[in-house]
Amino acid sequence: MSATFKLFHEEGTTKKEDQQVDQKEKLRPIKLRVTFNRKPREYSTVHNVTAEDYDKLDKPHISDNLKKIKTAIRKIMLEAEDIAEQLEPFSHDAFERSFILNNPLFDQRKRKTRKDNQQKKGDDFSKHEKKFMILRTPGIDLKGTIGHSYLKFVKEKILDNKIGSALKYNYSFANIYNFKGNIQLTEITTEFVKEFERHKIKNNVRKSAVGSTLRHLRAVLLDAFDAGLLVQNKKTYPFGKKKYKIGEHTKKKQKLTEDEMNLFFNTATDCENETMARDFWFFFYFANGMNPRDVYFLKYGDISDEFIKFVRAKTEDTTETTTEIVAYLNDDMKAVIEKWGNKDKDPDNYVFPVLTPGLDATDIDTAVTKRTRLIRDWTKKIGKRLEIPLTITPQLARVQFASDMSAAGSTTSFIKGSLGHQKEATTEKYLASIGFDEVKKQANILQKFKKQNNKANSERTAA
């Protein structure tokens, strides 16, 4: 996979101090966006122009100053692409060192040097040994081995409270270690990777699981290049064109029909776990397809009148931080809170008794995983009992929300904003433009699946 480059003009903000400023007259930097493995990084050039002048750059007749800027940014693009071709394998950090750092064409004020989190935060990981095989395996921290490089990743993720990500690297290491032991990084060749895949497939391991292991291995190798533990060599690097290509695991995004949704919603059951799982699933669905983890982090202070305003943690290891999302709190969601929520509605209390104050990152991850698995296991059982062909999982609620909103004609901007797939400024600007009444109106689309079935509704209420 090759890196892609794009020059763009930084968007305006919605901050109060900017509201009175004519955006056409406001100077903003021209930026270079570099995307690799679907992860973008942005770099501000030293060229600051107004939106009006930026639009003129593609026109034939412009001022001498704009001509100079136009020539400079063209040079940036050409040199960036040349540098990228020379980096084999490519990585963001290597590109920054080779092209961005100390380059007079880029603003250096916001550049951050990578720090070793272990040295900064300490290295007591004994309490994590039970959960992480890599931490309790003796003799693996030998420089130049996979154990040394994987261990660095795992410890950094733990220190950053990214337990889920740390576990993925731990799982990847365990797979490689159990296959060939604590081998040298130089032994990771194209033939090794192919042999590993054949071994796993022969042992009935899904190809998607193999791909997950190898994606994390690739990240470890790229980091080793950046750290100088391996020499960048296009002949020995196992991934890429004409070598081993990690398959993209894509699933056809299916959804429940309206009849299946109605059947699931109105199912009567005497089992408390079934009732809990169903209720939480529909809470996820009605709350903009909210991720289970974000639901468990909700506090009563996030509820205001008829709406929930919450901050969703962005995908791990991206440059984005947080995005506030607004969801309409309908009567069904209120009923779930009343039935399953904490009775003490102090603004600082969690809405649901899944998490408790004072938990560390590992305990939080354990609690989140335990509750999500419980919901998943029981919704799957409900689906089988109702003879619904599609497997019902918490993740399906998010897909169902997006599919139903799209089918009803909601705009892509609204759906992305509701899911938290846009930048913070873009989402806030869009929600501000449509207002909370429109959010409520759009949310009512999700009630469409309900049928006029008084008997079913009475049974559900009784359950």
Automatic annotation (TrEMBL):
Keyword Ribosomal protein: no
InterPro entries to which the protein is assigned, alphabetical: Arm-DNA-bind_5, DNA_brk_join_enz, Integrase-like_cat_sf, Integrase_catalytic, Integrase_recombinase_N, SAM-like_dom, Tyrosine_recombinase_XerCD
Record-linked Gene3D superfamilies: 1.10.150.130, Intergrase catalytic core
Molecular functions per Gene Ontology: DNA binding
Keywords assigned: DNA recombination, DNA-binding
GO aspect biological process, one term: DNA integration
Record bears the keyword DNA-binding: yes
Pfam families (alphabetical): Arm-DNA-bind_5 (PF17293), Phage_int_SAM_5 (PF13102), Phage_integrase (PF00589)
Family: Belongs to the 'phage' integrase family.
Protein known as: Site-specific recombinase XerD
Organism: Filimonas lacunae
